[in-house]
Amino acid sequence: MKNLWRTLTVAFLVGVSSVISAVSALPECLQAAETASAADKKQEHVKEISVAETSEFAVHQHDISVQDRMGRALYQGRYPELVAKDGASHGLRAALQKWNAEERANWQASDKKLRADVRAMQEAGYPILAPYYIYDNVVNWSRIDNRILSFCLRQESYTGGAHPNHVYRAWTVDLTTGRSLALHDIVTNRRDFLTAVAAAFRAQYTGREIETFTKNIDTQLELAHPYLDWDRDVVWTMLPDGGIRVYYGAYAIAPYSAGDFIVDLTPEQAPYLFR
Predict the structure, then answer these.
(1) Cα(61)–Cα(73) distance, rounded to whole angstroms?
(2) How far apart, in whole angstroms, are the C-alpha atoms of residue 96 and residue 84?
(3) pTM value?
(4) Does the pLDDT at position 200 exceed 80?
């Protein structure tokens, strides 16, 4: 009988030990599983994009792709980096350094959003039928000279939904001071700006104001640029002749189906507008 109890006791202790070992190993197993599920493969390629032979900087395009462990594409990204060439002015170098830092921060935020959106779809059990993406591309070099650098980017993105989306972002810097220029540095006031944009819209997009949300460009511009900080969200670039180009992307003044509206305002057409 003593031998029987001894045998049972040993068996019990061995069993408990096995259970304890198994339980203690669970966090490691869970951690390994979590690490494996997050073990996406990220690749980044950089290529140089030509601007103009006379420009003092080059564009390095960063292309990023992320795949899961099975090699399936999850998401993609792109953002530009502006690299000063040898002999570039101090003002240009300082301006580009600041802009590049902001662009890297923008991409890090985009990367975080893309990863979160993909994970949310996966956890909900929905397949990623096509890779999500956020692309930032320079679409217009409006002005490049020894005083002004002005250009516009178009951000295209898809993170699910009926269709991709896009927005415009622009940057204009005075290279003599390194200071970014605001629209109120260029134009006289809100009323003159709205008048000039409405006239240019009707000249460049004859008969199309019916496509805007309000079906009237004057009313639509009043809503798009309210009095308080009216110029803060205007996307614009400077033209070589001192005029400006204004960008209205999807949903800014019209439905997605209407497309984009881009209007040029020149000193010849609107001499009252410019300072």
Answers:
(1) 20
(2) 7
(3) 0.80
(4) yes
